[in-house]
Amino acid sequence: MKYRFLLLSCFLYSLMGLAQKRPVDYVDVFTGTSNSRAMLGPYAGVPYGMVQLGPDNQDEGWMGGYEYSLSNVLGFSHIHAWSMGGLMITPHNQDFTIDKGRVSSPYKGAGASIHSRISKETECGAPGYYSCFLYDAGCKAELTASARCGFHKYTFNKEHDESRFLISLNYPTEYKLNLKEGYIKKVSDSTIEGYASIECGYSDYKLNFYIEFSKPFLSVGGWENSDVKHDIDAILGKGDVGAIVTFNVKENEAIMMKVGLSLVDIQGAKRNLSEEMDLFGWDFNKARKSAEDQWNNLLSRIKVEGSEKNKRKFYTNFYRSFSKQRWNDVDGRYVDPFEQIQKLTDATDIYGGDALWNSFWNYNTILSLIAPDIMNNWVKTQLELYDKTGWTSNGPTGVELTGIMEVTHEISMMVSAYQKGIRNYDTKKLYDAVLHNSMEQGRRLPGTGLAGMERLDIYNRLGYVPYEIDAASRTLDYAYTDFCAAQLAKIMGKKKDYKFLLERSNNWKNQFHPLYKWQVPKDSLGNWLPDYNPFSGKHWIEGNGWQYTWYVPHDVDGLIHMMGKDLFNTRLEEGFEKSIKHNFAAHVFDRHQDKAYEYYVNHGNEVNMQAAYLFNYSGKPWLTQMYTRMILEKYYGDTPFHGWEGDEDEGQMSGWFVISSMGLFEMNGGVMDNPTFDLTSPLFDKITIELSPQYYSGREFVIETVNNSSDNVYIQKAYLNGKELIVPKLTFKDVIKGGKLVLYMGNKPNFNWGIDK
Asked: What is the dihedral of CA 169, 174, 176, 177, to 10 degrees?
């Protein structure tokens, strides 16, 4: 396809002189960037970087940000996180305007916007790099980044007596930016600083910036709303505020700028810029290579051998799995959810991003396997928040307590880390934080959002959450979190807590209808919801009753017992067969949906990502092998228009691809005292996982398949370190000791393998 050749040309810089492609060279940053959320674009950044610098080309509203199919750019902004945006820079040499217009606005003349057309064949991207040619602005734009800084390079195709750059503090985003106050000041003839106090979606923050240019300005102007000012030293306002910086440029001259950001203060932005960018000087390619090397070092921790297409899909998903952010300055300072400046004393960085919602089916595994240092720091992030706020958080974008999805699945990550020996933190404080979440009534804190389990009181009293109070899915979420906390209590010898929490984790059974054999919402009096239809999303969060019935990750055996194995398998098989035509997605349930639609498996939303692995528990592991391979092929694509059949959710869908394509999965998130993988059919001929010497005794773990192909998806027999393996299970301890798993594959199921528990 044409775009792949364009992408290949972008990679020539990194491929020159190499005998073979590196993992980073397989990443396609444009995959899935059409009809995607604002967080997913061809942005330049580093793993867990605050800055994700790249193009914006859409109007304000849902899925605003970057859209691959559009051939224009409004500007290049630095923050593309969930419910956050910030600081857009636009080269502007056409007829002067500050109007950001709409996608359909003209490019020149009456009613024109500041946006510029681009030639798609000039658009290139790679991890840590983005480039395109802006036709109307007449320049080649190149972007790279460090963790907290952006580096811009604009090379002009002709001479300009007065070439403009617009620095916008307010611009169209997915969640509307409300600029409460914006300030921009000229510090010297080549430096600008300022801040933007912003409300956006669930976030309230102050983005501070410090910008250095590679040559002196010709002039500095600015605007507040429609009032344009010339030759100013500073501008202060609200609503729409920006600066106009001009230069005289020669043909083929490059104007560069380095931008430091901080949520703390301007001095922090300046310090971040100095610490992260001074070593590059004005050598753009050196900065780009640094970002590229960080990605390649991370991606090289797993080596896969197979088809070029599957390697491209694997490393692209691997790359997306590390798209969360760090929100502290280089000196450890950060702003807590109560908008107080704090300083880290233990954690390396404070992490955040989109909600940790059912992330135990992806993040818990990929982080513990190949980035235990990041998983350890996630725990430290949670303990830091517990210290400062009294609560942990399920996804502190910009370090906020948002309560989005109203779950506390950070508890699963914390417990999983401990059970896997990732314990470089205060373990007593860990237990205190986990128990506090389980025992203390959740509430919405002043000045921030929801902390803890908001319906814990009624859940304790009734054993479920009534549908007139909140979604019935709360019962299932709380029961799973109870199980996680119980496992930590067990291994720490807290017998009383263990007994109480384990018993409460059975509350999922209180919503299981004894006749219908479905999860059915109840009211406060114990009455079942009348006229119940399992295909309705009423009283469920982004799913329906069919999908949520399977959502008991901590007690699949109990679910099979209550439903009956035959009915369990019949319903699940029917659901998978009827979902093939939809590529295992159900877009109608991407949002709350009361109306009943006959959709079954919805891999495109988190509550159903375990479904294919349930057959490992119901005596039909060959169906797990068949359907996981189908999902890897059908749900996941490798073009801009088909990357993920649903919301990629800042690395969660990608994480599932990475672990499942290696033939691994953790049903309960690895929270028990001997974490165990479910096995399925790997996508590759050979997988080599590099293990961390800081945390694990083994050097590497190898998964090798014999006679593997797109037809030969069924495991015939398996050997672990030369010893026959007769169950579709593998312990985490076996993996981190190092060794080899060999799977013999065939084109027909082996009905005798993997059924013995």
From this structure: -20
Residues 164 and 253 in one domain: yes
**pLDDT bracket for residue 3 (50, 70, 90):** very low
Mean per-residue pLDDT, 627-640: 97
Task: Give residue 125's pLDDT.
Answer: 98
CATH number of domain containing 116: 2.70.98.10
Q: Which of 58, 49, 115, 123 is nearest to 79 (CA)?
A: 49
Question: Residue 496: inside a domain, yes or no?
Answer: no
**DSSP codes joined into one string, 627-687:** HHHHHHHHTB-SSSS-SBSS--TTTHHHHHHHHHHTTEE-TT-S-SSS-EEEE---SSSEE
The CATH number that applies at residue 400 is: 1.20.1050.60
Q: Do residue 198 and residue 283 come from a single domain?
A: yes
Binned at pLDDT 50, 70 and 90, residue 596 comes out as confident
Distance CA 619, CA 621 (A): 6
DSSP conformation class of 603: T
DSSP, collapsed to helix, strand or coil, labels residue 188 as strand
DSSP 8-state code for residue 304: E
Measure CA 100 to chain center: 29
Helix (H/G/I), strand (E/B), else coil: 422: coil
Largest CA distance in the chain: 81
Could you give the C-alpha distances from 556 to 157, 346, 615, 731, in angstroms and in order?
63, 38, 10, 18
Backbone φ and ψ of 183, nearest 5°:
-140, 130
The CA distance from 194 to 680, in Å, is 53
Q: Is 79 part of a structural domain of the chain?
A: yes
338 with 415, same domain? yes
CA dihedral of residues 438, 443, 444, 446 (deg, nearest 10): -110
CA distance 104 to 36: 19
Contacts of 110 (CB under 8 A, 6+ apart): none
In a domain, residue 693? The reply is no
Average of pLDDT values for 233-241? 98
Q: How wide is the angle at C-alpha 307 spanned by C-alphas 301 and 312, nearest 5°?
A: 55
Strands (E) in 467-566, as ranges, are none
Please indicate, yes or no, whether residues 347 and 424 belong to a single structural domain of this protein: yes
- Residue 37 CA to residue 83 CA, distance in Å, equals 11
Give the structural domain span for 362: 332-454
Quote the number of domains for the chain: 2
Q: What is the chain's length?
A: 757
Side-chain-facing half-sphere of 205: CA atoms under 13 Å: 32
Query: Which amino acid, residue 730?
Result: L
Considering the domain architecture, whether residues 293 and 342 belong to the same structural domain is answered as no
* The pLDDT of residue 9 is above 60: no
| Span 623-640, average pLDDT | 97
Whether the pLDDT of residue 523 is over 50: the answer is yes
**pTM of the entire predicted model:** 0.96
Angle at 197 between CA 195 and CA 200, to 5 degrees: 130
Gap between the Cα atoms of 167 and 184, Å rounded: 9
Q: What is the pLDDT of residues 682-736, one digit of tens each?
A: 999 999 999 999 999 999 999 999 999 999 999 999 999 999 999 999 999 999 9
d(CA 513, CA 529): 10
Question: Domain for residue 511, yes or no?
Answer: no
CA distance 54 to 44: 6
Burial class (CB in 10 A: 0-12, 13-18, 19+), 12: exposed
Q: Show the 3-state SS of 94-113.
A: CCCCCCCCCCCCCCCCCCCC
